[in-house]
Every structure is written in structure tokens, then in C-alpha cells.
Amino acid sequence: MFKEGVIKLGIAPIAWTNDDMPELGGENTFEQCISEMALAGFKGSEVGNKYPRDVKVLKKALSHRRLEIASAWFSTYLTTKPLEETVSAFINHRDFLHAMGASVIVVSEQGRSIQGLMDTPLFDEKPQFTEDEWQRLALGLNHLGMLAKEKDMHIVYHHHMGTGVQTTSEIDRLMEMTDPELVHLLFDTGHLVFSGENPLYILKKYLPRIKHVHLKDVRRDVVEAVKAKKWSFLQAVRQGVFTVPGDGSINFEPIFEQLADSDYTGWFVVEAEQDPAVANPFEYALKARQFIREKSGL
User: Fold this and answer.
1) Of 96, 120, 241, 290, which one has the fewest beta carbons inside 10 Å?
2) Rounded-to-integer distance, Cα 19 and Cα 30, Å
3) Which of 24, 88, 74 is nearest to 46 (CA)?
4) What are the sequence ranges of the domains in the chain?
5) Alpha helices of the chain — where are they, by DSSP H?
6) Neighbouring-strand partners of residue 249
7) What phi and psi values does residue 126 have, to the nearest 5 degrees?
8) For residues 28, 219, 238 and 25, what is the CA-based torsion angle, rounded to 10 degrees?
9) Under a CB-based contact definition with an 8 Å cutoff, are residues 90 and 140 in contact?
10) Residue 1 has pLDDT above 90, yes or no
11) Which CATH superfamily is domain 7-296 in?
């Protein structure tokens, strides 16, 4: 289905140790995580909170397992803090990823985000940006895009539950307000379906700007419970709202078909944060790898 050599398949370490709730998987080591990724058949990883930030140390550990770094999350605060604060941290992050051989930088605006608040209802308290905040976000992202371009890299914006850019209309507005040469999109199947959006619509509309893909499945019964019981994003994760592709309710076949017929090149990253004490990360990594092979040929 896919042309040979155009897609790299990775998996995120958040299934082994959760970045937002480090007590989930606190017992799992960095070495165990990357060893199981490689054993499950993946070729790369994003950067988790247990990964060494010394480039030589990290490269050595990954090279033993024939793994690469695909990208890493960067939180922006363009709507709530001076631009200079975000820029300074971004440059350090950019240079680290560049040294690791990555070509994309995942960014997500965390100004007024509720994704990290344990007791804030996800759907009831979702932030809405003001006109001024939208302008600050767009200008700031364009600036970060220029900084990324200095290293021949791209920023990819991660639409995310509990933030000001979550819904179709918000993604549309962000794409309209930013320079298509500087600001690209991360396509995350799980966050779109969780929010109630149509992932195929977003995929078809923004394919030329999509430069990174997160493959994540959703358990619809948990989504309904999140709404009914007014759970937060973190409570939803603890209750298993996300899972690996093929284990939830998303139909991935048309998504794979659309991507295979496109000019997309780059990473597909399985990202499915669950409680590793409930969902063994190695077993779920194997399950995801088998499903992707069967449905996409990768």
C-alpha cells in the first residue's frame, strides 16, 4: 500500500511512563522502554521524561537498539507569556532535536490549557482563545517556524484535548492564520475522535501541511463516561480512553489508504497513553505493530 521507504514507524514512550502523571509507569526504566520498542519491531521513538538529554548518551543507547528519535513535545505559552520566554526554551529544544537527527518539532499551546488538571471537567471547562490570544498564537508560531527553518526543520502543531486548539473550527482557524510554509500540522487520530471531529476531513483538507502523524485509538464507551461523569483529561487517561490502533473504535483503513495515496513522508508514531499496570506496554506495542502491518502493509 505504501511506497517503500517513505514511512518510518515509531512508538511513544508515554505507554511505559506517563509524562503528565509520572507515577504511571514509575517503575519502568528508560532501558526497558527502548528495548521493548525495538523488540516489538519499531524503528524510532519520541522523547520521554526518562530519556537522557545528553546527546552522546542518548544516541549510544538508541544505536544499540537501532532506534532513532522522531521528535519531542514542546509546550508553548504564546497566549499567556512574553514571546521571549518561549523562544529561549524553544531554541534549546530545537538544537537538541537537531543534534538527535529529528526533522520535526511537536509544539502545542499550553496557555490556559486544562489537560494537566486532575479535577477539571474536560468538556465543560475547555479554554476558548480571545481574538488577542489567537493573534499572539499565530504570530508566535510563525516566529518559531522561522527558527525551525534555520536548522532545516519544521514545527508541527499538535491539536490536543483540553487546549484552545482542539476542534475542527479551531484547527481551521489556526491553519488560516499561520504561514503554511512555517507552521505545519500534526495529525492525531485519537484526539480528533475523542473531541468528536472527523479525522478523514482533517486529513484530506490539510494533507499538504501534515508532516507528522500520531496513531492512537479511542474507546468510545470511555469517551461517553468522560462526558457523563465530567472527568478531566487525566482521569480519562487513567480510565483507558486511549489505546493502540486496532484495539478501539477507530476505522484506520481509510486513513491508511488516504495517507498511502498522498505524498506524505515521515513518521507514524503509535501514541497511546494508558496505565501500564493495566495495559502492559510491551504487549500493546506488539498488538499495535501487528495491526499496522496487517492493515497498511508497513
Assistant:
1) 290
2) 13
3) 74
4) 7-296
5) 30-39, 55-63, 83-99, 131-149, 168-177, 189-195, 199-206, 220-229, 233-238, 253-260, 281-296
6) none
7) -60, 130
8) 0
9) no
10) no
11) Divalent-metal-dependent TIM barrel enzymes (3.20.20.150)
Residue 169 in contact with residue 120, Cβ under 8 Å?
no
d(CA 142, CA 177): 9
Give the Å distances, CA to CA, from 204 to 40, 258, 264, 297. 30, 8, 12, 21
pLDDT mean over 161-168 = 98
Partners of 243 in the β-ladder: 217
**Which set of grid coordinates corresponds to residue 113?**
490549557
- Contact indicator for 248, 284 with CB cutoff of 8 Å: no
Distance CA 38, CA 24 (A): 21
Record the cell numbers describing residue 220, joined without a space. Answer: 468510545
Strands 242-243 and 217-218: antiparallel
Q: Return the C-alpha cell found at 201.
A: 476531513
SS3 271: coil
Which amino acid, 258? Q
Residue 286, C-alpha cell as written in the block:
506488539
Check residue 61 and give its pLDDT: 98
